[in-house]
TrEMBL record, chain B:
Cellular location(s): Cell membrane
Name of protein: Monovalent cation/H+ antiporter complex subunit F
Coiled-coil ranges from the UniProt annotation: none
Membrane topology designation: Multi-pass membrane protein
Similarity field: Belongs to the CPA3 antiporters (TC 2.A.63) subunit F family.
One term under GO cellular component: plasma membrane
UniProtKB/TrEMBL annotation, chain C:
Species the sequence originates in: Streptomyces plicatus
Segments crossing the lipid bilayer: 12-31, 68-90
Region described as Disordered: spans on this chain: 97-121
Superkingdom of origin: Bacteria
Keywords assigned: Membrane, Transmembrane, Transmembrane helix
PANTHER family the UniProt entry points to: ANTIPORTER SUBUNIT MNHG2-RELATED
Protein name: Monovalent cation/H(+) antiporter subunit G
InterPro entries (UniProt xref): PhaG_MnhG_YufB
Length: 199, 105, 121
């Protein structure tokens, strides 16, 4: 069962209708049906059937290009990522709250963090996850070099910058283990680029 | 039993009061800016506050009648500030005081 | 009404209280921080945590399967969409030079942006 999730792209559960580019994407249909039922607020057969009909009609009327973005769902990795994100959200909120009531002046910094993963999906997921690390918000993403640019509050302390960078790399590895292909995980397991120089 | 109920009532009322105070403070930020981007950020926070306020009401009444409203706000609440950041803020600078320093109120 | 339900109700109320407190602290941060980038810190992180706590509190008090599903969906979308807005605002703030009156202690992005502009010319 876990093999089903680990080694196949969700996009392998889709079939082609007719000769055109109309593709019925089963995970998408299931997701749309779930949202339909939640919006109606009652779980009944009528809602389920109607939801499936609407979702199939939508998928056929507005076909999406069938691109493999390299998404894999790994339940254990997702669980670990969720627990870590929860812990991280608490600690970053406490940190920001402390800074709110600390006496200024603040010295902020913009720090470049080169990532080790290359795929677009991993880059996006890492950037979303990183928006929650203590004192880091993403200003710019350079796709060609896979570099994130973070705004770090309270950068007077040089350890703060270094710890923000470490946290991004840790997050990157967790994200790759939750959603990445085997190649992404191998990329993320490489040693971090040492030194303080921007690439 | 009744004391427990009173404690819960008090907690919910305090929550609602805090949301209202937060909303009032947010109005100050929206009013004074100083730049359009500050207002964009404040707009985002306002959506989150509305979601939280509806949540308190739902918890008090014990029904999920307004959940679709929360869902749509969580879904589309970011579009307003994205629009501001993308199309308005480029032409916008914080106002400059008489002595030449920027006004970061 | 058994003891478990009462405990869940009370925990839900406490979580609602904490979530609203967190939202209020975030708004106070928005008033106190000196520039847009810092303010967007204060806006995103405490707000996401506050919304999460409030919605978990509501879920604990309502306890119907379908309501909990809707609340989980709300948390999911909030978590997914709020970084989008904060990133675009931060990007726009950086590019219009609103990085605070005292400037940045260190800036890795500026040389790269200037490089790119030179190459385009």
């Amino acid at each position: 069962m876990s093999n089903l999730f680990r080694d196949r792209s969700p996009y392998s559960w889709s079939f082609r209708i007719g000769s055109g580019r109309r593709v019925l994407d089963l995970p998408l249909v299931a997701w749309l049906t779930a949202i339909w039922i939640l919006l109606w607020g009652t779980l009944s057969w009528a809602n389920l059937v109607n939801g499936i009909v609407v979702a199939v009609c939508l998928c056929l009327a507005f076909p999406l290009p069938a691109v493999d973005i390299g998404l894999r769902l790994r339940p254990l990795g997702i669980l670990r990522l969720a627990v870590y994100l929860l812990y991280d959200m608490f600690s970053s909120s406490v940190e920001v709250t402390r800074q709110i009531f600390a006496k200024g002046p603040y010295h902020a910094a913009v720090v470049a963090v080169p990532l080790r993963v290359r795929s677009d999906l991993m880059l996006t997921a890492t950037a979303v996850a990183v928006s929650n690390v203590p004192g880091g918000s993403v200003i710019e993403v350079r796709r060609s070099t896979a570099t994130l640019f973070l705004h770090v509050l309270d950068a007077d302390d040089p350890g703060e910058i270094e710890s923000a960078r470490r946290q991004v790399w840790r997050m990157e590895e967790l994200v790759a283990r939750a959603f990445g292909t085997a190649e992404d995980i191998a990329h993320a397991a490489r040693p971090v680029p040492e030194g303080d120089t921007p690439p | 039993m009744t004391t427990l109920h009173d404690v819960e009532e008090a907690l919910l009322t305090a929550s609602l009061v805090m949301i209202l105070v937060a909303g009032a403070l947010l109005l100050y930020r929206i009013w004074y800016g100083p730049s359009m981007l500050d207002r964009a950020v404040a707009l985002d926070v306002a959506a989150a506050l509305i979601v939280a306020g509806i949540g308190v009401k739902a918890a008090h009444d014990g029904d999920g009648f307004y959940f679709p409203v929360m869902l749509v706000l969580a879904f589309l609440g970011f579009t307003g500030s994205v629009g501001i950041a993308r199309f308005i803020a480029v032409r916008d600078r914080p106002s400059v005081r008489a002595d030449g320093t920027e006004d970061h109120r | 009404m058994n003891a478990w339900a009462r405990a869940a109700d009370l925990t839900g109320a406490v979580l609602l209280f904490l979530g609203c407190l967190q939202s209020l602290l975030g708004v106070i941060g928005m008033l106190r921080f000196p520039d847009v980038l810092s303010r967007s810190h204060a806006a995103t992180k405490p707000q996401t945590l506050g919304t999460l706590l409030v919605l978990v509190g509501v879920a604990l008090r309502l306890r119907h399967g379908i309501d909990v599903g809707t609340l989980a969906l709300i948390v999911f979308f909030q978590f997914l969409t709020s970084p989008v807005a904060s990133h675009l605002v931060a990007r726009s703030a950086y590019r219009t030079g609103q990085t605070g009156s005292r400037g940045l202690l260190r800036d890795d992005l500026d040389p790269q942006l200037s490089d790119m502009e030179q190459r385009e010319e």
